[in-house]
Write a structure and sequence with these properties.
Number of helices: 5
Oligomer: single chain
Structural class: mainly alpha
Largest sheet: none
Number of strands: 0
Helix content: over 70%
Number of domains: 2
């Protein structure tokens, strides 16, 4: 019985880890899309290039925040995404210097929205777990609420 419980817990933990890694991967892909858009040539007007650098810096900041928050669960991925973040900072700096742009504006609202949505998903997942458990076992959710 204990073995089954441990295996279920490990499976849930792995599912969460895979989800977090996928979120980091998609964020890294977004950075690549912005970088590729900047390669259209040196004839991009300054305001468009500045908008791309601002967007890149914002997404890169979000990647760093996610990595710092969840990297403890993914040590090898933490190292890789930390390297990607640092390289992105250098790319941004190079763009600023090469094209005479101002320092990028980093929209930090993405970071707070990220954490709010992660915690909302965790709360929803917990509620769903206890609803399902409540149907399987007598008083699953009801007992949990009464204990609080």
């Amino acid at each position: 019985m204990k073995r089954k419980v441990v295996l279920k817990a490990m499976a849930k933990f792995l599912a969460i880890i895979i989800s977090l890694n996928f979120a980091l991967f998609i964020t890294e892909e977004a950075l690549q899309v912005v970088m590729f858009a900047s390669w259209a040539g040196k004839d991009i007007d300054v305001s468009t290039r500045q908008a791309l650098v601002d967007l890149y810096a914002t997404i890169n900041s979000t990647l760093n925040a996610m990595n710092n928050a969840f990297g403890v669960f993914l040590p090898p991925f933490y190292i890789a995404y930390r390297s990607y973040y640092l390289a992105g900072k250098k790319w941004t700096q190079a763009q600023v210097e090469a094209f005479g742009l101002h320092e990028p504006f980093v929209d930090r609202s993405w970071v707070s929205a990220l954490f709010v949505s992660v915690f909302a998903l965790l709360a929803a997942g917990t509620i769903i777990y206890f609803v399902i458990r409540g149907k399987e076992e007598k008083g699953g959710l009801e007992e949990f609420i009464k204990k609080e």
